[in-house]
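DM from R.C. (forwarded with permission)

"hey, sorry to bug you on a friday — could you get me a structure for this? deadline for the figure draft is monday and I only need the backbone to look sensible"
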Amino acid sequence: MYSFLFNNLRFQIAATVFLLIIEIIYFIRPKLRLLSSRFFSLLMISVIIYLIFDYASAICLIYMNQVPRWLLRFTHQGFIFFLQSTLSLIYLYTDLYNRNQKRYSKFKISFIACLYIFSIFFVIFAPMEYVLEPDGIYSYGPMADFVYLIIVLYMILITKNAIVSYKKGINKKEQLYIFATMGLWTIFGFIQMLVPKMLISSVGLTAVILLLFLSLENPSEYIDKETLAFNSTALKLMLGEYLNRRKPFYIINIDLEDLDILENQLGQDVRVNLLTDIRIYLVKTFRLKIYRFTNQSVTFILARRYFFRKEEILEKIQKRFENVWSIGETNVMLNAHLDVITCPTDFPYDGLISELLTFIQESHSYSTSKTFVRAVDSEIKENYERKKNLLLFLRQAIENKEFEMYYQPIFNVKENKFTNVEALVRLKNKTQYGFVSPEEFIPMVEKNGMIMDLSNIIFNKVFSFMNEKSLRQKGISHMELNLSGLQSVDSDLPLLMNKLLTEYNIPADSVNLEITESVAITSGYMLKKNMDELKKMGCSFSMDDFGTGYSNLSQIVKTEFEVIKIDKSLLWPCFDEKNKSLQNAKMLLETLIELMLKFGYEIVVEGIETQEQFEYLKKQGITFAQGYYFSKPLCENDFIEFLEKNNK
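My reply, with the result:
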């Protein structure tokens, strides 16, 4: 009898072992409070109850001559009901996952409720037959037939939703997992129908749960491996959940402003250690779910139940940041602030999640406030809207190549004429924005993946101008082009440059590429590789804006530039009579020029505005001079006229 009992329960035993492992992993790990995740939790509970009834119904069948008839029927009713419930929860879970947590309409809720009521009616009143034979046991009848019909209906609905989502490009990888899940369940279903005595449904259901857990609901997918906070993917999902609830909530973003500097001073681990310490403090103190949003910020959400504590929470966080944080044996004060965003006051319920994430990340950049807690005000909203609309304008400008090139002459002190020129990109919007500064639109172009398109436009316009106007014959030996951080480390840069130089018949040695000091120091291997390849072609390089970045002379010496461009911020204090450190400023500038000349660099000083400045710099031995004293940036025609007038 015991071997007969084991043979008929072996699949349930195997399913129980695997299911318990999944349940333990799932329930002990931190989880998101998504609507779909709540249904998955219900699903995990439902399948456990289903397994209990599966055991009970099988045991009652084996001993059906010894147990009351009502108990035999009750265990089968429970088995059938929770089997159907489990499949319906799988449907609801996958459907909510594909709907991005959007709530159901009243019609759909009514449809699902009616289906449930109808199922309960059949489970209570439909007949059921039982078979006990020497080689196995099983049950059949209208009750079982109906639940199989319901299961098939749910499978069709799940597959249909997955097909629609896949065609729309929504979570395409995840849809493949759903197809695999339904395929797996179909296989087990056919086996159960063809060989009813195998009682394999529990194994099939456990396999389906395992596949869903590993592919869609695995908690580790939402955890940042370094800090153990929830990651940005989890934040995106939770924000969608909160917006769908259409109830007010706060988003609090803690932004650490000096992490890059601390990392340079104290090592690479400082970033992770500090963010981890902040997460631990917030979790222990307030029992909040913390999200690592960016490399220098963590975020949490305050739902309605926290509203009465909001001011207390913000005040405690501020006081904590007024004290030191420990990094090993070093104590540091963190320069940080809180951005507080209120939904829907600051951001509507029907807004795009991608826009909300951008708003969270950049809201402090639109504010002039220097306080620790920074709430969204009208200025921030206006600046955000401007930037959003400007991005649309930038996309259109790149598509239509609406950028203009201006050229600022550079005076060669030794040759006493203008031999170099810097190409500067300009963008004008005649109706709304007027002149848009490159300092504003270049970072936007980089961040939104348009920098190489803009580079193509700039290079084509500049090289076409050089070719058409024969600038070398007019005395211009070098055209200086600015490279952004992303351009300078783009692996396709040498190929692009070679292609365009060949196309416009431009000698490579007439092109000088400018890279800012901070990019030169932090870009590493890829920048050096690109510089080596471009130098082999004949191009030269300038370090631009020297004096504005993290000046590191040892790194500068290692990076093979031909020219150092000293920023105006080092020149102007030398001629500011109100500057109490005027002599120190001159000493610093003179020392830098002397040092760079000894290293063998040619020196350009930018921002020269007076003859006094120019005469002073000539005495220091600079090679080139640039600034409004000679000329402002000029359009193409005005630049040619300038050369014809001044380079005789």
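R.C.: lifesaver. Residues 69-98 form the longest helix (30 residues).
me: no worries. The chain has a mean pLDDT of 84.
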